[in-house]
Amino acid sequence: MIAGVLALVVCCSLSACSKSGEDSAAAEVSDAKSQALETTSMTVAPAQRQSEIDSLLTESVDYSSAGKFRECMEASTRAAELDSSSSRAFNNVGFCAGKLGLWDEAIENLEKAVQIDPGNEHAKNNLAWAQQKAE
């Protein structure tokens, strides 16, 4: 299934590249990739999707524990893309962004985490930390 989606992206990329005008080709490639990602997201079974999200969040914590905050941020961002209602994912993105000194991004993601789940104490504490550091 994923191979079919990848083939779609490659096929669309090749046909777009053969057209004149680099801007239209780049736009078509971007559109093809977006459509392929949407198709993949829509066709993954809910249990399989949740398993992927859980795996990404576990991976992000492992990266954070190892001091690999960029990798942590990437895994957490992917989890947040798969589940836009995951307070935990946005908390992890925000925490890692803060550890990288990206305070605006940290605050934005931590505010989203608290908005999703006002009871998420980790997100509230991390938000206070990021706001203090950003001053």
Unreliable spans are: 1-30
CATH C-level name of the largest domain: Mainly Alpha
Sheet with most strands: none
Give, in order, the helices and strands.
HHHHHHH
Assigned CATH architecture of the largest domain: Alpha Horseshoe
The end-to-end span amounts to: 48 Å
Give the count of structural domains: 2
Helical content stands at over 70%
* Number of extended strands: 0
Query: If you average the pLDDT, what whole number results?
Result: 79
Radius of gyration: 18 Å
| Overall spatial form | globular
Q: What share of the residues does DSSP label as strand, in percent?
A: under 5%
> What is the CATH topology descriptor of the largest domain?
Serine Threonine Protein Phosphatase 5, Tetratricopeptide repeat
Which secondary-structure class do the elements indicate?
A: mainly alpha
What report would you give on this structure?
- The chain has helices at residues 2-18, 22-43, 46-65, 69-82, 87-99, 103-116, 121-134.
- The chain is globular, with a radius of gyration of 18 Å.
- Helix 1 (2-18) packs antiparallel against helix 2 (22-43) and helix 5 (87-99) runs parallel beside helix 7 (121-134).
- The longest helix has 22 residues, at 22-43.
- With 135 residues, the protein is mainly alpha-helical.
- It is built from 7 helices and no strands.
- Mean pLDDT is 79; it is low at 1-30.
- The protein folds into 2 domains: 2-43; 46-134, Serine Threonine Protein Phosphatase 5, Tetratricopeptide repeat (Alpha Horseshoe), CATH 1.25.40.
